[in-house]
């Protein structure tokens, strides 16, 4: 059981792991031993996730989700299977925690009078700077 939040728990039956050879340098060991892990989680059909959390997770995961909604995390940061397995599970838990956080809705506000005035003043100053530059180039020509 993977405990994400006090409310969200993912049973082991929903996770599948595949061990592969890790890419990159590592000498003979990397060519012989499958230490990297691919952790797959069917986010689209998981009964453990609420619908709003599922939608945010699929959007957050981006290209790590395939066409069927299966989220795959590859971990090959460490030299041992156990550490890579823990790393993949922690990264999955972090993604789900991030998706479980409901974003605060933005309340549209109008710009203050002072901010409008500051913006217009800076635009006028910038315009004057550019105008003085163009006048000098006319006199030189």
What is shown here, in short?
This protein is an alpha+beta fold and 141 residues long.
Tell me the number of helical segments per DSSP (H or I, 4 or more residues long): 4
Query: Could you give the count of β-strands?
Result: 5
- Output the CATH topology of the largest domain: Double Stranded RNA Binding Domain
Q: Look at the helices and sheets and give the structural class.
A: alpha+beta
Q: List segments where confidence is low: pLDDT < 50 over at least 5 consecutive residues.
A: none
Question: What would you call the quaternary organization?
Answer: single chain
Summed over residues and divided by their number, the pLDDT gives a mean of 87
What percentage of amino acids are in beta strands? 15-25%
Percent range for helical residues? 40-55%
**C-alpha Rg, in Å?**
26 Å
CATH secondary-structure class of the largest domain:
Alpha Beta
Q: How are the strands of the biggest sheet laid out side by side?
A: 3-4-5
The end-to-end span amounts to 78 Å
Query: What profile does the largest beta sheet have?
Result: 3 strands, antiparallel
Q: What is the 3D shape? A: elongated
**What is the domain tally?**
2
- The CATH architecture term of the largest domain is 2-Layer Sandwich
Order of helices and strands: EEEHEHEHH
GO biological process, one term: rescue of stalled ribosome
InterPro entries: Pep_chain_release_fac_I
GO molecular function: peptidyl-tRNA hydrolase activity; ribosome binding; translation release factor activity
Pfam families: RF-1
């Amino acid at each position: 059981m993977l405990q994400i939040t006090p409310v969200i728990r993912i049973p082991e039956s929903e996770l599948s792991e595949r061990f592969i050879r890790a890419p990159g340098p590592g000498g003979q060991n990397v060519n012989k031993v499958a230490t990297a892990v691919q952790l797959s989680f069917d986010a689209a059909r998981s009964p453990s996730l609420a619908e709003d959390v599922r939608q945010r997770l699929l959007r957050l995961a981006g290209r790590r989700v395939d066409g069927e909604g299966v989220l795959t995390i590859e971990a090959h940061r460490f030299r041992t299977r156990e550490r890579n397995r823990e790393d993949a599970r922690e990264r999955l838990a972090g993604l789900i925690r991030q998706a479980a956080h409901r974003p605060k809705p933005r309340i549209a506000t109008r710009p203050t009078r002072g901010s409008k005035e500051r913006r217009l003043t800076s635009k006028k100053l910038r315009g004057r700077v550019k105008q003085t530059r163009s006048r000098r180039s006319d006199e030189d020509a």
